[in-house]
Amino acid sequence: MPRNSTRRRMFTRVGVGLAAVGLLAACTSNTPEDDNTEPADDGQQNAASSNDDPGENVVIGFSGPQADHGWLAAINSFAEQTAEQYSDVELRMAEGTNDPSAQISAIETFINDGVDAIVLLPTDGAALTQVAMQAMEAGIPVVNVDREFSDPAAARATILGDNYGMGVSAGEYACQLVAENDLGDGAVIAEIAGIDSLPLTQERSQGFADALEACGQNVDNRVAAEFTVESGEEAASNLLQAANEIDIIWNHDDDQGVGVKAAFDNAGRDEFFFIGGAGSANAMRWIESGEMEATVIYPATQAGDGIKLARLIAQDRGLSDLVQVEVPRRIVLDAPVVTADNLEEYLPMGFES
């Protein structure tokens, strides 16, 4: 999908590939002068192996929130699936919880057990910062997933989705639809947000507004839901009652999108292009059947990527596709748009709402 070069702050979005598919080779002579001659060293370090090759056995503790909707269930599932790929990883899963105190207790247990690394998607980043610091001080590297700690020193590495970038991707795609369908300056664009008090919702909305502004558009109608099916249906019903005609709707979350879609069907409204968010299997099936235009990925694979990073850090290895010999401290994943044209590529990552 073409990107608008005028967008604001969008150059800060960084994607880092985690697949280990090659070796970094140092340049050396193939014909040494004699048997005692050492190969020339140009200062580059040759990666010993692919990251997926077995290494030292490690124990990784994982803790995440309660899987009370599809995206969080997928977080836990990808963590388990990823660990199972490696014969050198023993994964210890704490019971999912929305209680910060219970999650703190789980991390304390990991510390007392002396695990080699911890992957943590905190119920509350600020509340879990202190116990993550305790793990780091005990020599146990922590990989922080999705919700950041209040002190960056509490994590050896942080891996995040891109909420602002998610809004940008949705807005850029909306701009593309406006241009391709000759909707003009009078295009009516609506937004169904998540919980408005959350920074992630604010970032998504800001990215959407910034991308629309870059092509001369704006949000005409906006409602907020609560990331649940019931709230999505209620918010979408209110939106449809307030606007007799809409050209494009972006819904922030595909889990609440089940209710949003029900409201559309109940009202018999389908005159608009429907864009979703997060990348659920439901949304991808709707795209496949022509009932939805697109969805913007907010990767449920983050915890799986966290397991990969924790394994390498605990084994004192870096990413073999990078010249840098250490695992990066911060990785922000991309927020691509899934349409009928690239659906097959993303179907394996779709989660059930």
Automatic annotation (TrEMBL):
Q: Name one GO molecular function term.
A: carbohydrate binding
The entry's family comment says: Belongs to the bacterial solute-binding protein 2 family.
Q: Outline the extent of the Periplasmic binding protein domain.
A: 60-313
Q: Which InterPro entries match?
A: Peripla_BP_I (IPR028082), SBP_2_dom (IPR025997)
Protein's UniProt keywords contain Signal = yes
Task: Give its localization.
Answer: Cell envelope
Provide the protein name: Sugar ABC transporter substrate-binding protein
Which residue intervals make up region (Disordered)? 29-57
Cited Pfam families: Peripla_BP_4 (PF13407)
Bias kind Acidic residues: ranges = 32-41
For this UniProt record, the keywords arranged alphabetically read as follows: Signal
Q: Does the keyword Membrane apply?
A: no
